[in-house]
Amino acid sequence: MAATRKPLIEAKPRRRKKHPPNMFAKNNIPSDQTVMSTAASFAASAMVIQTVARNLLPYELKAYIFNNISKFFKSFSFQTTLIIEEFDGLTRNQIYIAAEIYLGTKTCSSMKLCKVSMGEMETKIVVSMAKNQETVDVFDGVKFKWRQVTRQVESKNVVFQGQSSNVRSEKRSFELSFHKKHKEKVLDSYLPFVLKESKRLMEEKKTLKLHTLGNDHMRRYVGGAETWQPIKLDHPANFGTLAMNTELKATIMEDLERFVKRKDYYRRVGKAWKRGYLLYGPPGTGKS
Question: Which residues form the AAA-type ATPase N-terminal domain (predicted)?
């Protein structure tokens, strides 16, 4: 039998896979001089752009650009901020007042700077947030960031007794920031809690005060809450100094204490929470 020869197959060289250049290879690492030169060039370009934007662009265009840039970055944020202004039109915002009282109990324990004051004839020190300060409050395991914002506002030119002056006033507000998933908790639970707690604190330190307007110049040109000047009503007369039959005095005091405790009852039945006593007798017995 004749032997069959196998056909010869030409062997082809194997192709080597091309690997991408290694940016961390020793030869590809930029020198320190190159890095410093690039950073200096970038910083110089940024300063030129900032100078051009500050000096050449109109204020309206700059505000439009910056506002849109701010909105762009805020769109990626999970934070929500509520603004609580001191005045709602011509009346004071009750939420602002409540927040101011409530945060007074939290401020000095979590801040380096806070404000303390005590009015004339007062017996307790009042603590509140200083201007443009921040504090953090925790409610039901959630952190809430409070920031007090005070802006100076220049009012119109005032002429008084031949002298002209610009009266400056302030606009105050609170900014409450939190994760946006807690918005319902803030509106349904947290802010009602702040209102309730501030009311309790006010009842504890409540003092009877008389408020009077300042001088005619302040009433006419300045306006606002600053024109009202409070003074504590500290009258020396009390039930102890009242010259009255002992049993009758005890009856009036018991009736008054019962009336004070039934405030909610008067609200439920729709009656005004008022009580009056007519005292009569000779002068000098302490009726007034």
Answer: 57-149
